[in-house]
Structures are given as structure tokens and as C-alpha cells.
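Anyone up for a design puzzle?
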């Protein structure tokens, strides 16, 4: 009998029915494909992949299957889940289904020992872990090795992340292959996702095994009213949200492509609407407890919206979420479908609005290649691992930490971490408790494979361009991008209706745009001083002495701030007519800053590090010196190398130390003075840190940095 032909026994059907009623209410019943999946998973060695729309009830399948298998005496279920928020929701759902569930994650370290003991004593029905936890050697040694032989069911949630063809590929998810190989062959495996096209579905199914049962359903969402506005500038998009947010029904999510946009848009909304329309920013930089607090605040409607990056994506469940607005779409229609799928799960109508801008193209181009390994970087990393092994001097192969590899290779830490995970997937390196070691496997760059991935991502970006141009039914286009053969015109989107719903069609009023620009330009950011020297090629490591540190500074233009976008573009093109605007804004920034000065600046020193042709640092310093009747001086620098952003912290700090020179006039002015250091642009603040130390060594009492443009 095939998996698809398997049927639940009367006893199994009764158990599964109790679970479904506990989750969805009295009278709820398993859908046909849910019943097929549960029946299949009740068989030994089953492999099932469920690809169904958000809200269909994929989690109900594994809770029902767990209850059925536990009643039959099988071992506990291991659920691999990507996000803490998803784990919290799933633990609550498991409890409603009468199952004992627990999780091991960074937020409950104190509970680990008790949970692990309960697992060994068969006191837990479901253990939820992240893919990163699977990759942790300590977890593998203590828990996974013990459980692997007696698990009843393994669930891979959001399984598209297993495939490097997927929109959200995570190298740690590929550790699932290792886990499957260590399982008792009789253990059933279930993978679930709402966002897998045909290629990803095939890839995941092959990784599960040749006999995998694939249950794929229609992906249309009848509750979503999809809309696309006319193309706007980034500033107009901010204004559109500020103006239209009060008119949107219920509570929702406003997605942005960058952390800076999330933080700044949330601030503007708060400034304009205050308590009448409370919002908060939600990004990957938040601590776990703060994420939980904000998720709960949206769930209980104590905030009107979260202004979020993709960090609020997989796993967040609020059935009555009334709207999702995107300031620019992700570059993949699959990830866009996933994000808009947060809305309208338990209500009849939810608004989904995309606000496109030509500025999004640069972000899409970055995403297309950001995770592709650079062969030169890989070889540098492997050489660093070899050097660590050689340094072990005949003892056990030396394990290298990420910090040591950063210093050894000259690669930035984030790049080192990503490459190590990718190489672990390919069996070239291995993470052990002491760090990372190289395995006796040669690495080769599979150019054809990665070229295909880039080509696929660019094709997906082209689909999103078609979406933003409203070339066909919006829901149909998303379904087709997921290879849904039931795709058809929805009759509800702005293309099918040939018009945006009022008031969504209205462009923001000019006065709203002007007010948003005014608020944003008056919102300078603090520039926290670096407190530690980087070591590595710089040599010195550890805390920067207080007598060499800069004070907390200010940033005038942060990243690609929409209110400054046109001005920055003009300056980059050599248009000096834009300089007065920046100069006047610098004066206003100093006015708001001066209340926190320890001393009023007595010397203005410029430092031009970006190589721009307009002389921004000098012009701003001249203007501030003139307004404040202060003497002027400069820190000079030889031509900055084009690849300086590829240097790690130790290398970059060392470069600035060797190439920053205080001019003679500067040296004469510094004795005991308070210096206003004007720097044109930086992404790391190392030139500011090193320049401040040189100025302090030359006699400055304190250094107040003003960074004109903080680059990302």
C-alpha cells in the first residue's frame, strides 16, 4: 500500500480528531490531505513533504501525527523550527493539543538540564530546536546522539530553507541531512512549507528520500486584497505610510528592506501620530525578550503596527492581522508571498499594499550575490584553518575560533561565519566544541551551480518587476512563481479591479511629504565611540584608553536616508550647489547636540576619507568654523584604496594609523582644546577612532566627531 493510499484506523482517527478539535474548535475535522499525511506518517520510515498555503494547517499535521504515534508507543517528536517566535506559538499549540512540548534555545539556558532529563525519561512528547542548535556540537553530543535512535517523528518546518534554490536558504538547515542519516531507519520524517516552487520541492523531496510523498495544494489566498501603488520616491513612501496608516483596518505589519528604514519610519510615525497610532520597529538587532514583547504587543493590538524587516517573517501567527504594507518588495516573489501570508488567516479581508520605488533595484542586486562564496575568500579561510592546525604542533588538530580566523584571513566576521557554515554543508570543515577544524576534503568552486542560483534569483527579481508594473493579476503571478497549476485571476487585486481601493490610491499630500522630510532631517543619530582596539594586524588589542577615545558624536545622514537621497546623489555627481543644504543642516545638528557637550568646540578639524570630488568635509568644516568664529585645521590622508571595505577591523585600523597625518596648523591649535572633527563618510568609524586618538595624543582635551554620511 502506498503512502497516499494509507488510511487512519478508527482509533487513530479518533486521536487525530481530538487534536484538531482542540486546535480549531468543536466540529473541526482533518482536511483530506491532512488525513493522508497523518496516515502516512503513522507508517514506519515514512517520508512526507507538505506544500500548502499559509493558514492551511500544516502544524496540525505534525501535532496529530505526534499524538497518534505517541499513543502507539513511539518516541518523541523533534521539530526543527527557524524562529523563537514560531517555537513559542508551536509550544502553545502543542499544549492545546494535549502534548507536552519544550524547547532548547538561548533564552532558556537555565531550563536545559531539566528538559534534557525529562527527554531521557520519556516525559516530553515534542522537542523544538533551531537549525543552529542542530549544528552545535554540544547539543549533538548531549541530546541528539541519545535521541536519534528512538525518535518517533522528525519535522522540518519551513523546509524551503533546506534548499539553496529556496528564497531563504540557511546553511545550518542542511545539517538535517546529517540528522536523517543518524536516525533509526523506521523514524518518520515530515517537511512542511508554504513557499516552495517546483524546483525547491523536488530538491527537498530528494533530500528526504526517493520514496517521499509530496502533498501539494493550491496556494491562492482568497482573503488577501493585493494592491500596487504608483512608483514613488523613498521619501514619498514614508509620507504615504504616515498619511494612510490611520485608514487601514485593524493592525498589521509594515515591511522595509533595511534596518535603517524600519527604525526611522517608526520614529516618524510616532512623531506625527503619537499614541493615536502606536507603532514600533522590529529588526534582527533586537534582543530576544524585546522581540517577544513586540510580537505580543501586535498580537493583542496594543500597537497598531510593527515596522519590520524580514526578521518578522516565518512563524509569526496572528489570525486577524488586517494589513501588510511593503516599502519595496523583497527581490523574490516567493519571499513576498510568505510575508504577505501573515495577513488574513482568520478574517475575510486583509489589505496587502506594495509601494514600489526605483531605489529598490540596488537592494535586489545586492541580494542576488550576497551569499555566493568568493573563491579567494574561501581559500584564505582554508589557509587560516590550516595555519591553526599547524600551530597545534603535533597535538590534536587545532580548532580555530571565528575571531582568530577573522584576524588570520583579513575577512570580516560575518563573512567568516557564513563561509564556515557553507563549507560545513559541503563536508569541508566541521564545527567542534573548541571551534572549527578542516576536514580532509578538497573544496572546488562549483561555478555552474552558483551561476544557476544567481540566474534564478535574477529571474525572480524580474517577476517582481512585472508585479510592481501590474502586468497581470497579482495573486495569479505569485501562484505561478510558485508553480501552482491552479493559478487563475483572483478578481480582487488592483489589477483585476483596475483600480486601487480608496483611499489607497491617493498619493501623499505635498505638505505631508514636507513634514516628513523636516522631521527626518532634524533626526540626527548618535555616533557611539569605539571602545576596543581590534588586535590582528593593528597589533594593539583591548580597551582604548580613555585619554585617547572620542566622545559620543553625531551622524547627519544615515545610510540611504530618503530625505537626503537626492542631495547625496547630487554630491556624488560633483554638484557643489547641494553643499549649502548640508552645511545648514550641520549647523542645526550642532544646535541640538550642544546641550550634551562637555565643552564647546574650540577648533574645527576636517577629515576627508571618501575621495569625493566636492570636498564635503572641508566645506562643512569651513561653514561651521565661520558660524562659530573658530580656527580651522585638517587631518590629511593619502588616497584611500578602493578595496578598504574588504579589510577586517585590524587591517583597516592599521591602514588609517599609517596614513592619517595632522597638518602643522592642526598641531599648533590642539593644546588643551575641544576639537570638532568633521568627517565626510565612513561605514566602520575606524578613521574617526584612529584620528581621534592621534588628535588626543597631539594635545586635544576632547574630540567631538560629526560624521556627515554614515554608509552601510
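Challenge accepted. My sequence:
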Amino acid at each position: 500500500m502506498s503512502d497516499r493510499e494509507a488510511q487512519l484506523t478508527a482509533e487513530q482517527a479518533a486521536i487525530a480528531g481530538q487534536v484538531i478539535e482542540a486546535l480549531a474548535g468543536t466540529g473541526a475535522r482533518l482536511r483530506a490531505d491532512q488525513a493522508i499525511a497523518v496516515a502516512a506518517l503513522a507508517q514506519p520510515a515514512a517520508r512526507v513533504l507538505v506544500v500548502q498555503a499559509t493558514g492551511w494547517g500544516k502544524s496540525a499535521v505534525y501535532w496529530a501525527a505526534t499524538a497518534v504515534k505517541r499513543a502507539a508507543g513511539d518516541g518523541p517528536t523533534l521539530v526543527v523550527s527557524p524562529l523563537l517566535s514560531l517555537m513559542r506559538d508551536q509550544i502553545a499549540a502543542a499544549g492545546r493539543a494535549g502534548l507536552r512540548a519544550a524547547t532548547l534555545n538561548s533564552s532558556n539556558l537555565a531550563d536545559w538540564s531539566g528538559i534534557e532529563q525529562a527527554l531521557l525519561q520519556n516525559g516530553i512528547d515534542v522537542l523544538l530546536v533551531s537549525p543552529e542548535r542542530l549544528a552545535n556540537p554540544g547539543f549533538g553530543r548531549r541530546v541528539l546522539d541519545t535521541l536519534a535512535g528512538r525518535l518517533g517523528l522528525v519535522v522540518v518546518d519551513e523546509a524551503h530553507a533546506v534548499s539553496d534554490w529556496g528564497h531563504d536558504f540557511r546553511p545550518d538547515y542542511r545539517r538535517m541531512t546529517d540528522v536523517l542519516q543518524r536516525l533509526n531507519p523506521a523514524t518518520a520524517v515530515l517537511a512542511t512549507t508554504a513557499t516552495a516552487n517546483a524546483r525547491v520541492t523536488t530538491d527537498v523531496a530528494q533530500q528526504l528520500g526517493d520514496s517521499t510523498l509530496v502533498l501539494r495544494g493550491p496556494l491562492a489566498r482568497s482573503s488577501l486584497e493585493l494592491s500596487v501603488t504608483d512608483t514613488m520616491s523613498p521619501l514619498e513612501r514614508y509620507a504615504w505610510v504616515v498619511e494612510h496608516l490611520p485608514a487601514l483596518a485593524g493592525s498589521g505589519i509594515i515591511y522595509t528592506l533595511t534596518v535603517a528604514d524600519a527604525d526611522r519610519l517608526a520614529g516618524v510615525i510616532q512623531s506625527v501620530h503619537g499614541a493615536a497610532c502606536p507603532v514600533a520597529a522590529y529588526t534582527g538587532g533586537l534582543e530576544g525578550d524585546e522581540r517577544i514583547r513586540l510580537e505580543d504587543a501586535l498580537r493583542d493590538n496594543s500597537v497598531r503596527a510593527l515596522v519590520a524587516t524580514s526578521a518578522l517573517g516565518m512563524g509569526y501567527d496572528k489570525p486577524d492581522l488586517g494589513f501588510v504594507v511593503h516599502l519595496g518588495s523583497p527581490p523574490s516573489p516567493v519571499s513576498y508571498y510568505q510575508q504577505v501570508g501573515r495577513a488574513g488567516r482568520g478574517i475575510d479581508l486583509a489589505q496587502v499594499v506594495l509601494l514600489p520605488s526605483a531605489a529598490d533595484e540596488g537592494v535586489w542586486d545586492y541580494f542576488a550575490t550576497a551569499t555566493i562564496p568568493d573563491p579567494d575568500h574561501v581559500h584564505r579561510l582554508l589557509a587560516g584553518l590550516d595555519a591553526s592546525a599547524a600551530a597545534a604542533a603535533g597535538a590534536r588538530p587545532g580548532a580555530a575560533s571565528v575571531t582568530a580566523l577573522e584576524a588570520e584571513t583579513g575577512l570580516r566576521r560575518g563573512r567568516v561565519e557564513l563561509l564556515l557554515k557553507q563549507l560545513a554543508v559541503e563536508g569541508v570543515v566541521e564545527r567542534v566544541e573548541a571551534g572549527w577544524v578542516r576536514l580532509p576534503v578538497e573544496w572546488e568552486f562549483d561555478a555552474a551551480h552558483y551561476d544557476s542560483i544567481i540566474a534564478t534569483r535574477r529571474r525572480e527579481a524580474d517577476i517582481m518587476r512585472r508585479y510592481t508594473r501590474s502586468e497581470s493579476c497579482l495573486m495569479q503571478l505569485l501562484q505561478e512563481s510558485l508553480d501552482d497549476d491552479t493559478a487563475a485571476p483572483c478578481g480582487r487585486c488592483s489589477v483585476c479591479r483596475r483600480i486601487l481601493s480608496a483611499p489607497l490610491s491617493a498619493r501623499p499630500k505635498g505638505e505631508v511629504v514636507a513634514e516628513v522630510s523636516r522631521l527626518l532631517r532634524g533626526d540626527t543619530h548618535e555616533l557611539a565611540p569605539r571602545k576596543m582596539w581590534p588586535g590582528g594586524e593593528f597589533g594593539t588589542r583591548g580597551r582604548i584608553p580613555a585619554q585617547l577615545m572620542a566622545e559620543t558624536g553625531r551622524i547627519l545622514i544615515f545610510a540611504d536616508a530618503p530625505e537626503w537621497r537626492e542631495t547625496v546623489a547630487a554630491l556624488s555627481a560633483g554638484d557643489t550647489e547641494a553643499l549649502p543644504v548640508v552645511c545648514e543642516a550641520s549647523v542645526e545638528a550642532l544646535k541640538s547636540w550642544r546641550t550634551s557637550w562637555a565643552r564647546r568646540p574650540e577648533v574645527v578639524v576636517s577629515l576627508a576619507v571618501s575621495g569625493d570630488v566636492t570636498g564635503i568635509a572641508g566645506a562643512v568644516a569651513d561653514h561651521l568654523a565661520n558660524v562659530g568664529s573658530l580656527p580651522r585645521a585638517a587631518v590629511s590622508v593619502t588616497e584611500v584604496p578602493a578595496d578598504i571595505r574588504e579589510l577586517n577591523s585590524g587591517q583597516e585600523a592599521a591602514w588609517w594609523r599609517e596614513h592619517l597625518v595632522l597638518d602643522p596648523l592642526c598641531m599648533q591649535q590642539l593644546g588643551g582644546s575641544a576639537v570638532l572633527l568633521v568627517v565626510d563618510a565612513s561605514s566602520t568609524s575606524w578613521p574617526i577612532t584612529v584620528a581621534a586618538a592621534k588628535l588626543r595624543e597631539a594635545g586635544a582635551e576632547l574630540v567631538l566627531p560629526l560624521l556627515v554620511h554614515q554608509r552601510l
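A detail worth pointing out: The radius of gyration is 28 Å.
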